[in-house]
Amino acid sequence: MQNQNAKSKTELKYRAYQYSVKTIEFIDALPNDASTSILAKELLRSATSIGANIIEAKGASSKRDFTNFFTIALKSANESLYWLCLLRDAKKLKSQSLANLLNETKELANILGSSILTLKGKNKF
Question: The domain spanning residue 34 has which CATH number?
Answer without folding.
Answer: 1.20.1440.60
